[in-house]
């Protein structure tokens, strides 16, 4: 028996993997649409979307076809060359957004790293080395590299890794007065999630984003929108900032861009992009033909009125049904979010117990997420079938019954 065919189980994780994750007790082996099957053949409804990654569900036939076709042509050529899928995807992204230039990488952290490096380079070239400070928000999440984890506003992720990069500060989210106090001529960039994801699915207020945009203009600071989680149709618009009518200088996207295949992108204007001249930044696998072929298929499907309107309708339906369950079982303080990025906030009685409710959902053959200790997060496929959404909600009610009985 070859090593590929050898039977493995969850127990093998503890023997061979670095223990930075604590994966579930079962191993998924197959997915189709919004359903997953584990090694024992158990079927689960997936309302987690691989943490908002599987925007078109599992094994969407058009993505499988795009990947298979490209896999028979060209896998990797390095950035000594360009390639057709990368050029096609870049053209479609610039046609669909404010941006004129694209940089491809492999993860949200890499895209944010590129955006932050770009902001510092623009400021250094135009105004000198003093203009290097970055303002982020408390409870934000921007990645796990040393730079991005410190730009993120959650100290629990950045402690214990040595001295922190200088010139980074954090202010409360949705607090324009705090931003006004923090920003100065030394600020090169403000980075925000239009909907804070990891910290509880918290949408920005309209006046807040308008005010931050005006402050960035006043102080010649780049406004970076991190749309790693909120982008690619998740909000019901292709990118969440479109809901507000506020245009950033730089935007990052990842997660759903590849529908499960690793790819990310930083998008910006021609004028800012020129500061990343030949040799200033790079990545071995960024713009990989396989990833870009899949990304193009994802974009072609998601960026249609049919899918985006469906996201809005299903999001409203999901929030309404969750509110009804919250009232029925006296469980949720509120249900918030945009499109199919939804957070159900536990009330005072159940604060800190989102993880326990997520575990109960798994026992009811349902996958949901948490966003902090008090919020159950839902990020299902953007094209989830109504029957799967309803079955998922039925299983969630079973989980709630078990949870409140405890």
CATH top level class name of the largest domain: Alpha Beta
- What's the oligomerization state? single chain
Strand content: 15-25%
Strand-pairing-aware structural class: alpha/beta
CATH superfamily of the largest domain: Type I PLP-dependent aspartate aminotransferase-like (Major domain)
Helix content: 25-40%
Which regions are unreliable across 5 or more consecutive residues at pLDDT < 50?
A: none
Shape: globular
What's the total helix number? 14
Q: How far apart are the first and last residues' alpha carbons, in Å?
A: 46 Å
Taking Cα atoms only, what radius of gyration do you get, to the nearest Å?
21 Å
Find the CATH topology of the largest domain: Aspartate Aminotransferase, domain 2
Strand adjacency order, main sheet: 4-12-11-10-7-5-6
> How many E-type strands?
17
Describe the main β-sheet briefly.
7 strands, mixed
Average pLDDT taken over every residue? 97
Main location: cytoplasm
Catalytic activity: N(2)-acetyl-L-ornithine + 2-oxoglutarate = N-acetyl-L-glutamate 5-semialdehyde + L-glutamate
EC number: 2.6.1.11
Pathway: Amino-acid biosynthesis; L-arginine biosynthesis; N(2)-acetyl-L-ornithine from L-glutamate: step 4/4
């Amino acid at each position: 028996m070859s090593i590929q065919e050898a039977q493995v189980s969850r127990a093998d994780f503890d023997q061979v993997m670095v223990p930075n994750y604590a994966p579930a007790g079962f191993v998924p082996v197959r997915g189709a649409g919004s359903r997953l099957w584990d090694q024992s053949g158990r079927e689960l409804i997936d309302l987690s979307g691989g943490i908002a990654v599987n925007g078109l569900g599992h094994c969407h036939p058009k993505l499988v076809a795009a990947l298979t076709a490209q896999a028979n042509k060209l896998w990797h050529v390095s950035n000594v060359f360009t390639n057709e899928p990368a050029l096609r995807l870049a053209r479609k992204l610039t046609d669909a957004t404010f941006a004129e230039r694209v940089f491809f990488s492999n993860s949200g952290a890499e895209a944010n790293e590129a955006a932050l490096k770009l902001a510092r380079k623009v400021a250094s070239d135009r105004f000198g080395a003093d203009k290097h400070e970055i303002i982020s928000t408390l409870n934000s999440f921007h990645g796990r590299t040393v730079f991005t984890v410190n730009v993120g506003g959650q100290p629990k992720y950045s402690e214990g890794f040595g001295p922190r990069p200088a010139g980074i500060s954090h202010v409360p989210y949705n607090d324009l007065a705090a931003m006004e106090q923090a920003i100065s001529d030394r600020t090169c960039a403000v980075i925000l999630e239009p909907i804070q994801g990891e910290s509880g699915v918290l949408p920005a207020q309209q006046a807040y984003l308008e005010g931050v945009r005006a402050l960035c203009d006043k102080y010649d600071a780049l406004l970076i929108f991190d749309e790693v989680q909120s982008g690619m149709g998740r909000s019901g618009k292709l990118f969440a900032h479109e809901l507000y009518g506020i245009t950033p200088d730089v935007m990052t996207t990842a997660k759903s861009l590849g529908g499960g295949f690793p790819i990310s992108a930083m998008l910006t204007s021609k004028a800012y992009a020129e500061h990343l001249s030949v040799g200033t930044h790079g990545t071995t696998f960024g713009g990989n033909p396989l990833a870009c072929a899949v990304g193009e298929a994802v974009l072609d499907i998601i960026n249609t009125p049919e899918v985006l309107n469906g996201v809005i309708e299903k999001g409203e339906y999901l929030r309404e049904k969750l509110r009804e369950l919250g009232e029925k079982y006296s469980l949720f303080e509120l249900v918030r979010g945009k499109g199919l990025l939804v957070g159900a906030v536990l009330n005072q009685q159940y604060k800190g117990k989102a993880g326990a409710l997520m575990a109960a959902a798994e026992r009811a053959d349902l996958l949901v997420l948490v966003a902090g200790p008090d919020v159950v997060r839902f990020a299902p496929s953007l094209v989830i079938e109504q029957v799967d959404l309803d079955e998922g909600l039925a299983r969630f009610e079973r989980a709630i019954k078990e949870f409140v009985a405890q």
